[in-house]
Amino acid sequence: MTEEPTDKETVREMLIAKAEQHATLTAADNDAIRKATFRIRSLATEEDVVRQGERPDSAVFISRGMLARYHTLPDGDRQYLSFHIAGDMPDVQSLFLKVMDHSVSALMASEIAMFDHRGLTQLFARRPGVAFAFWRLTLVDAAIFRQAITNNSARDPPSRLAHLCCEQFYRAREAGIAAEMSCDLPLNQTQLSQTLGMSHITVHRALQSLRRDRLLDLRGGKLQILDWGGLVTRAGFDPTYLHIAKESAISARIFRGQR
Amino acid sequence: MTEEPTDKETVREMLIAKAEQHATLTAADNDAIRKATFRIRSLATEEDVVRQGERPDSAVFISRGMLARYHTLPDGDRQYLSFHIAGDMPDVQSLFLKVMDHSVSALMASEIAMFDHRGLTQLFARRPGVAFAFWRLTLVDAAIFRQAITNNSARDPPSRLAHLCCEQFYRAREAGIAAEMSCDLPLNQTQLSQTLGMSHITVHRALQSLRRDRLLDLRGGKLQILDWGGLVTRAGFDPTYLHIAKESAISARIFRGQR
DNA sequence: CGCAGTATTGAAATTTCTCAAGCCGAGTGG
DNA sequence: CCACTCGGCTTGAGAAATTTCAATACTGCG
Q1: Contact A98 B152 (CB under 8 A)
Q2: pLDDT in tens, A92-125
Q3: Which pTM value belongs to this model?
Q4: Does B95 contact chain A (CB < 8 Å)?
Q5: DSSP-derived pairing of the beta strands B66-72 and A182-184
Q6: CA distances from B233 to A148, B125, B157, B210 (A)
Q7: Rounded to 5 degrees, what angle do the CA atoms A77, B169, B205 make?
């Protein structure tokens, strides 16, 4: 389970790649990103990175593994909010919202790069184009949260589960870390129930239904897609909300000062 | 119902006030905001401002009334995502996410100021402090979405409704547009059901329960708080997620170039 | 081998939804 | 001034879905 720590240079390139998914950056922008300092940290399964109520002073970039965000309810129960894969930055918001309103933990053995808030803030102040990229990233996050509201409020159990799987596979695919027709999804049925707002029994029956229809299989933390088209239909999945395309060319030009 | 259009100068001051809730701005920042051009538009109840799938070229600031964001499902059903009051900017994300993944409509006769994307982008590129304020605003939005996930997934019907009411009243209060113990909430029971992920019958029973316990009353589009403490308890409401306090002093200083 | 955590299954208890009908209040037109 | 209508609210009751409870497998690992 213990793998070699990722090379720092690799992390820098991953971060730049992520930023470039959200904006067209100049060489100077990239250089500025490269200069941002960070430290690598390994996480064990279930380990928390930050907890609800804390005031972190650094933001997280995932170089390997998978993290989750969750609310802790008054009765101690958990509500999972989102899942994040290598290349994601689940915690940019902590830069601007001092007190954490949720926790972040590792779903599997993972490795993260921790960027000091101060350094990031300076980077964003000096390089509007970079700020723009990371801002956009937080906006896509918000779009994913919106979709989760709809998913947990308006879909029946099998569709709900199917939608979650569509989203995770699609994002893993886009990030280039999915196998041909499968990806990691290290959640047991109890965690799925705490994600989808239903009991673990209902999750189990929903899963059975999707398996019976040969749409997917999910076991041992691996999601196997059996019939993508069928799954998309069952889920009512429309990836528009993931906003894979970049910002408009106009905005990009303005941000690069070519007004 | 048709009131005088808000004075443009008033809108400018409202916008600055909103920005200052999220960051400490310089006089130059404020001047730059003041120079942003916009046009006023009146909206009738139920009128859409933008629809899912469209590519708007301006962002909305609410000068009077109340707007909602919602998803339209494949079967034509609606899922409400959030509600916005005077002083809110529900649509900043459209600046960076070209295609709307949801619609925005008026819940009552309202008035909005529409800011051109191009002008806003230039403003943000030139004034990092201003960008910071609006970025933070979108992050609070995201925190509210997260809370909605939890609300609709993990709370029983009366708590769910109570939580929505707590949030709306608290925000109206903060915005200074609530009466002593009441505020607007122009939603009928069907709309509430499309917000909270339950049938309108269940909404009705939940409402009865809260009325019976003398916690609140909700009728004719007005929310009346009868027992704030009791309501907060019933809802499990903790306003931390609304992030009413500003960003840290350090970030503010960096953004003002005092590094 | 046995433990612990997870998955699976059945069945009862409970909640929520659907359906159906009546009511109420505001606005309308005769 | 009074039926009339329309939208929204209220209520009851049966149907359906979900949760809870309980018990039994399964699996990886020490």
Answers
A1: no
A2: 999 999 999 999 999 999 999 999 999 999 999 9
A3: 0.94
A4: yes
A5: unpaired
A6: 26, 44, 14, 12
A7: 65
